[in-house]
Design goal:
The complex is a heterodimer of chains A (83) and B (139). Chain A is α+β, with helices and mostly antiparallel strands. Chain A is 30% helix and 23% strand. In chain A, helix 1 runs antiparallel to helix 3 and helix 2 packs across helix 3. Chain B is built from three helices and ten strands. The chains are: A alpha+beta (83), B alpha+beta (139).
Chain lengths: 83, 139
């Protein structure tokens, strides 16, 4: 799965994007965030305040209980501030 | 007619407005421009950096314009938003909505900019003389 990071999340993780194979126990967005948080300190720093993290799957906003099964691209970012 | 543009380079709001006004079949035109402020609570802004998620931004803005067009029966809708590095005073976003009567054009314009602020994937970072800060969402 292609994983994209934006703004502050991108800066803390230190990458704009990466490819990550979904572990078999990861089903939802929430599971995926927990998986990343447990992976390395930088993910923990960037993502542990989950309330402040927004998610888009294949370019649509989704909630944390969204099932990732058919997702090709997930984007992880802080609340948007355009306009 | 809907036009959505997301671009790095500066745009000229007067030129865009003149183009929109050429087609006089509608009775009302409402225009909104959002610009880079010279000063915020954090100090004097040197530059504003805007990051975006290109494909999703285009998709969301177009969908929003389509909803507005249907809901308020718009004759014309033009949305332009910049990304990259902007200086104080430069325009960030412009929304033009046209309809037969002013009420619809006003309502649609506000709907589009409000929706864009909450949903379109852009992130602003204010660059000051000695520091920088990601802008936090204010609705």
């Amino acid at each position: 799965m292609r994983v994209l990071y934006f703004a502050k999340v991108r800066e803390i993780i230190g990458l704009p994007e990466e490819n990550i194979d979904l572990p078999s126990n990861v089903q939802t967005v929430e599971d995926f965030l927990d998986y990343l948080i447990s992976k390395e300190n930088k993910y923990d720093l960037a993502l542990s305040n989950k309330e402040a993290i927004h998610i888009a799957c294949d370019e649509d906003h989704v909630d944390k209980d969204f099932i990732l099964k058919n997702t090709k691209e997930i984007a992880i970012f802080p609340p948007v501030t355009g306009g | 007619m809907i036009t959505v543009k997301i671009q790095k380079k500066q745009f000229n709001p007067q030129k865009i407005l003149i183009n929109a006004e050429k087609d006089k079949k509608y009775g009302a035109l409402v225009s909104f421009i959002g610009s880079v402020r010279e000063e915020t609570n954090n100090g004097k802004v040197k530059k504003l950096f805007i990051e975006h998620y290109k494909n999703m931004a285009e998709k969301i803005i177009y969908k929003t314009a389509l909803n507005a067009e249907k809901k308020w029966n718009l004759d014309y809708c033009y949305i332009i938003h910049r990304y990259g590095s902007l200086k104080a005073g430069e325009s960030i976003v412009m929304v033009i909505t046209c309809s037969k009567h002013r009420k619809e054009a006003y309502a649609a314009n506000q709907y589009i900019i409000d929706w864009l602020k909450i949903n379109a994937p852009f992130w602003k970072k204010e660059i000051f003389e000695n520091k920088s800060k990601w802008v936090e969402q204010t609705l």
